[in-house]
């Protein structure tokens, strides 16, 4: 049975019918609606975008913030889904070439990182309770026990530092309650989903409170291997978090936290898009020789009866594959942190000390066939320790508010595994090119030291100025031992060291026209750390050094509240100058990074909320972005040919992003509450690789979700039914193309799903 296409009449009727059904269930009496309208007001949101708590509407930064309750209402169960509710952001898992569901690629305003490798730094920083998560591996976190998520758009180099050149995703976990209590939630749904989440708050003394949170997340995969019957893209994760809050005195508080996540899953779904020759692509020398000299000797027969890697291995579904290689996506993610707040009177001090680590094993069958033609396997281990000291204070009769600090960071990481490429192409069997298969061992040691300060001075009650700066030093050491599998040839056995200094200032002017209207302009700089290319396939000359990226963004915005806070309208416009862009090319056997381009990004973002009555809530977010290269240079070594021109589009930078939601709340006579919500997200064309390969490009698409919940009068019981991707849209989230190997592959987003949840608070 064929499904209705997104945007078709059938799809619209499905979603529209659901909304109408919700409205019919939740329609209030006219008198109740009038009374609710008189008391309606949008709740205040507190954010920490400037390293201190302040109202969102008073923060001269482009920020989208959603509370834990708002995330639950939208059905957000992993952090990447926040991108559906904020403009100008792409947050995708299943990074190309990895096969790992948890491996994130995050872009804000066209700036980020499309590579998961342990030597590649992200371009958007992820912070949990003030602690930086250095690796994109494991970056697609479960939204487990989250109190608030903030998406900071634009470079955050002054207060947050390195690798926040595109922006930052700041996550605050739900904190321990002061009374004995907790909650248990059970969710089931499509793909035999079974999620169990629970937390308990434990008052240990009059001044000490603890919370223990646990979760099990499980569901079958939405992809299938046809020859083995294995599934792909499943969930099988367990997590635990312990937190302790201690009021040591009236001036000192201590927060301790420890978390551990254990996932034992299969690889992310992969789909072969192209095998062999297509117009403008070519068959590739490796594939041609493989099918001539190797495949005929192997006991593998393609679906069309021929002993070759050919187009009969292509399937008619984005969720099926003939792959048989390693099928694994294991992750152990852990951390311990301590935060001390000390009120010294005129100055307050905060110390954030953290140790984090991960161990991840993931693999992919890149040829999507029983042959060993393009297969990768990674085992990564990483550990980091960080220390941040923050000092906050005021002066000049509270006209000056300031924050200053010191930051230190050190990490060690290793990547061991292999890339099995065109196995069997060896001297004596075939002419060149021979198999470039390589066994990999890479070790990195990274250190960062920084000092920062930022202050805002109010000249009048309405006009203020912000000045800030950060100095940062990065030191990196890479050790590579890469050996060719076919003969043990040492591709690279080298040590590379580098250090880079950076200075990232910020200046801004803010004008509070009324208590509910803030106008601001700002200029700020961000950077992404330099490094070394650690994917050599020929020899050590490919281990080239690339320099840090830099980005200057000039932004103007207005944040307003109207009609006694029943309407909020926030608008931001920006222009960014992007230099030393680290162009990452992964087109095996061409794999390298080069500072070979500069560009400009400009755009406008609108966010609106409306609450015409206590019963109705509306939200809208729209982002327009125009990103273009202004110069294109050369690679850093022989054979490093850039697949871009001035006409090439930025990767993961859709021109339009949009989201809208409507929520209706109906209070029953008993005091129970029914809430109906629907959400829509839109993306214009997304280019999933740096070369804008047409087969990897995702055209414009829309996603719809809905939720209907019932909460008992005492607030202790809640039942909900929900659906995601209701139009069953098929859309690519990552992909890779290799002309030399005659292959293109992609991963697709999750199909339509439904679920039912039941929770009990105590």
What can you see in these coordinates?
The structure is a single chain. By secondary structure, the protein is mainly beta. Helices cover 6% and strands 54% of the residues. It contains four helices and 41 strands. The strands form seven sheets. The chain has a 22-stranded antiparallel barrel. The chain has a five-stranded mixed sheet with strand order 3-9-10-7-8. The longest helix is centred in the first third of the chain and has 18 residues, at 9-26. The chain is globular and about 80 Å long. The model is unreliable at 1-38 (pLDDT under 50).
Residue share in helix: under 10%
Measured on Cα atoms, how large is the radius of gyration? 26 Å
Which spans have pLDDT < 50 for at least 5 consecutive residues?
1-38
Overall morphology: globular
Structural class: mainly beta
Beta-strand segment tally: 41
Using brief descriptors, characterize the structure shown.
mainly beta; single chain; globular; 4 helices; 5-stranded mixed sheet
Topology of helices and strands:
Blueprint: H1 9-26, H2 30-39, E1 46-47, E2 54-55, E3 63-67, H3 68-73, E4 89-92, E5 105-108, E6 111-112, E7 124-128, E8 131-133, E9 146-153, E10 167-173, E11 181-189, E12 193-205, E13 208-219, E14 223-225, E15 231-232, E16 235-247, E17 252-265, E18 271-275, H4 285-294, E19 320-321, E20 329-343, E21 347-365, E22 374-395, E23 400-421, E24 438-458, E25 463-484, E26 490-503, E27 506-514, E28 517-528, E29 531-532, E30 545-546, E31 549-562, E32 567-587, E33 590-610, E34 616-632, E35 656-667, E36 673-683, E37 701-711, E38 717-724, E39 732-738, E40 743-748, E41 753-761
Parallel strand pairs: 7-10, 14-19
Antiparallel strand pairs: 1-2, 3-9, 4-5, 5-6, 7-8, 9-10, 11-12, 11-41, 12-13, 13-16, 14-15, 16-17, 17-20, 18-40, 20-21, 21-22, 22-23, 23-24, 24-25, 25-26, 25-27, 27-28, 28-31, 29-30, 31-32, 32-33, 33-34, 34-35, 35-36, 36-37, 37-38, 38-41, 39-40
